[in-house]
Amino acid sequence: MISAPFNVSCGHCSNCERGLTNYCERANEPGIAGAAYGFAGMGPWAGGQAEYLRVPWADFDALRLPEDGRERQNDYVMCSDIFPTGWHATEMAGLSSGETCVIYGGGPVGLMAALSATLKSASKVFVVDRHPDRLKLAEEIGAIPIDRSKGDPVQQVKDQTDGIGADCGCECVGYQAHEQQGNEDNSITLNWLVQSVKFTGRIGSVGVFVPSDPGAPDDLRKQGKAIFDYGMHWFKGQAMGNGQCPVKRYNRYLRSLIHENKCKPSWIVSHELPLEQAPEAYKNFDAREQGWTKVVLKPQMKAA
Ligand SMILES: [Zn+2]
User: Fold this and answer.
1) Whole-structure pTM value
2) What is the CATH number of the domain that holds 101?
3) Is residue 211 part of a domain?
4) Regions in the chain scoring below 70 on pLDDT
5) Distance, CA 67 to ligand 1 centroid (Å)?
6) CA of 5 to the centre of ligand 1 (A)
7) How does pLDDT run across 40-68, given as a tens digit for each residue?
8) What is the pLDDT of residues 129-188, one digit of tens each?
9) Cβ contacts of residue 65 below 8 Å, gap of 6+?
10) Distance 80 CA to ligand 1 centre (A)
11) Domain range for 183
């Protein structure tokens, strides 16, 4: 059995040679670096939620799983995308052992960032969300849940960091973020992070942002622009890393952490469903239905 990164990458271009498989120069149309399966603007590759998947440059991209691959497939499946992506957020945030880390977003990627921060021995990991099922999962691995429906998340983080803010932070929400009143606001979590992270702290942003968003509520945001608090970000001397994760940089090692019983990323899985029930699963996940924290689709399963 193998694990295929969500990045499609050639292995030979100048970016791939430097380990930047997230910005392969050959897998998308000329002028655009980076490709992925089934993702808008990420090249001609059909989606990964399928019985069969065509994997170009498979000799380069595929990662072999150990003999417990089948038995632990709910853990290893996370190595294709969300586990490395969460790990990458903490890497870009420059997290060192003993530091505090605030993570905005308790979805699958945010929870994987929390798991990664825990594995890297952060002293305190905060997960900010407003859904109780996600906050409960964060708490299960020792993270501190911050329920933003119960008040200003920035203040809640500062209250637990001597008023200074966290050492570093991760953006795991993306452009479809919502402000406290429930309106879509693509910059709200970025601006909360600028406030929640200390002077000179770093931020890793892996939540998806897009160069154009036709469904956005106003003209500025339709053009992919954000009202980002750059003044405060600069004033605090912070740094921020952005973009998709180069899965191959991490997946071999995350595989080993699973194989050697150092972590169990499948703790977030709420549903295992056959492929036929994918539309229902997407609908429930998208609507943030209580209890739909992570779905694993299994083509070999029969519909109930
Ligand atoms: Zn390449």
Assistant:
1) 0.97
2) 3.40.50.720
3) yes
4) 304
5) 30
6) 13
7) 889 999 888 888 899 999 999 999 999 99
8) 999 999 999 999 999 999 999 999 999 999 999 999 999 999 999 999 999 888 999 999
9) 1, 2, 3, 76, 255
10) 18
11) 82-242
Determine contact, residues 293/268, Cβ cutoff 8 Å. yes
In angstroms, what is the span from residue 45 Cα to ligand 1's centroid? 15
pLDDT the model gives residue 304? 65
pLDDT of residue 302: 80
- Considering the domain boundaries, does residue 188 fall inside one? yes
**CB-based burial, 68-77: b 16+ in 10 Å, e otherwise:** ebeebbbbbb
State how far the Cα of 97 lies from the Cα of 240, in Å rounded to an integer.
19
User: Hey, what amino acid is at 297?
Assistant: L
- Distance of CA 169 from the midpoint of ligand 1 (Å): 30
Rounded CA-CA distance 286/263 in Å is: 27
Residue 75 within a domain: no
Give 56 Cα–ligand 1 centroid separation in angstroms: 11
Tell me the CA end-to-end span of the chain in Å, nearest whole number.
26
Q: Output the CA 57–ligand 1 centroid distance in Å.
A: 10
Number of domains in the chain: 1
C-alpha 34 to ligand 1 mean position (Å): 8
139 domain residue, yes or no: yes
Please give the pLDDT value at position 265: 98
Provide the pLDDT for residue 68: 98
Residues with CB under 5 A from ligand 1 (ion): 9-10, 13, 16, 24, 26
Give the count of beta carbons closer than 10 Å to the beta carbon of residue 5.
26
Q: How much distance in Å is there from the Cα of 17 to the middle of ligand 1? A: 7
